[in-house]
Design brief:
With 128 residues, this protein is mostly helical. It is globular. The protein starts with a helix and ends in an 11-residue tail after the last helix. This is DoxX family protein.
Length: 128
């Protein structure tokens, strides 16, 4: 059993639940129309929102299959960093408790994805 199985499962579960719910409650379209389009991504907000959520679903499947893990993780990390910059940074650090909707959750997911990508640590010269 791969040492990253539990982490890959946990991240895949989070990515899937975060994405699939938005498909059925119109959350993806709302995010595109009511947020991304409003902050300057019009007329591409809905396309970007769907691209983000579909990338989460693809990444979740790849993590579960243990295939193209680094590529899936890099794409997801990019999305999470952009989420911090565009959405969460202005709310501060805390998701709950000391604040609301902050960056701490995305930060944790980024670190977990890095741990999945490099389960034995970094080797000299290794990036991909």
């Amino acid at each position: 059993m791969n040492g990253t199985l539990l982490l890959r499962f946990a991240v895949a579960f989070i990515l899937l639940t975060h994405s699939v719910v938005g498909i059925f409650n119109n959350g993806i379209n709302d995010f595109g129309n009511l947020y991304l389009n409003q902050i300057g991504f019009a007329p591409f907000g809905v396309f970007l929102a769907w691209s983000i959520k579909l990338s989460h679903i693809v990444a979740a499947v790849l993590l579960l299959l243990n295939k193209y893990v680094k590529l899936a993780s890099f794409v997801t990390i990019f999305v999470l960093i952009m989420g911090i910059i565009l959405v969460h940074f202005q709310e501060g650090w805390f998701v709950v408790g000391g604040g609301r909707n902050g960056a701490e959750y995305n930060f944790l997911l980024i670190i977990v994805l890095i741990a999945i990508m490099y389960p034995n640590g970094f080797k000299k010269g290794e990036i991909v």
